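Reopening this ticket.

The earlier resolution said the output was attached, but the attachment link was broken on my side. Pasting everything inline this time so it's all in one place.
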Amino acid sequence: MNKPKDRLLPLKLSLELVAVELELSDLSLTEQYAVLHQYQKDFDLTIRLGGHHKFPGQLVSDGLEVVMDRHGEPGFLTLGDTTWFDSSIDEVALGNFVFRGDSRISISSVIVKGHEYYVIDEPQMHPEAIGCDLQDVYIDKEDFVDFRDGEHRTVPDWADPSSDLWAPELSLAVKLHKALRVAGGYSNERRMEDRVRCWIQDHMPGEEVGDGQITRIASVIGDARQQPWPKKNK
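Inline output:
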């Protein structure tokens, strides 16, 4: 429900203003942006890219080819068709991104018309992050009001990155349960551990999620029929 003061909000809100409106001002700037990033990933707070950024992208669903360089380090090559985007023309939302300490962010994937794309370099061969100023990203007023008055109000402490009780691994496990068990994502993979790993590689590139964490999450969200507990009542 719109509040009277909502009339004073601009049509495009900076992340700094959104943090103030969500009462995150007691946190450091780095923590504020980390919370907004978490809301974007877990609760669909749409953060958009403005400015004048032109870049090619490849559908995440097309996948990437893993190749080894001459030093034995893994790299990635594009596999699918690429499409050019212009943030001054197209409606581009942020997919995966990381905040940097110099008021800039690096964006590794974007969402356009409901589809997620890897950001690709100009030769259209390798994935490459866009570097842009925080002033180039924003949240639409309508999206912000919907988020503020919607699910965000009932986010449990364990899923709220601004809470002292936040449990990031539990939050990730719940998100993966919805994506893999409920929605049936990556069902072509037979092992739950492989399904978890594929999802993380596609949706969290550049983030350090270790094998031990992947195994734990796969065990938690795996097929209940293969788990010794808790026993279901017959």
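Reporter confirms the inline version is readable. The two ends are 45 Å apart (CA to CA). The first helix runs from residue 15 to 21.
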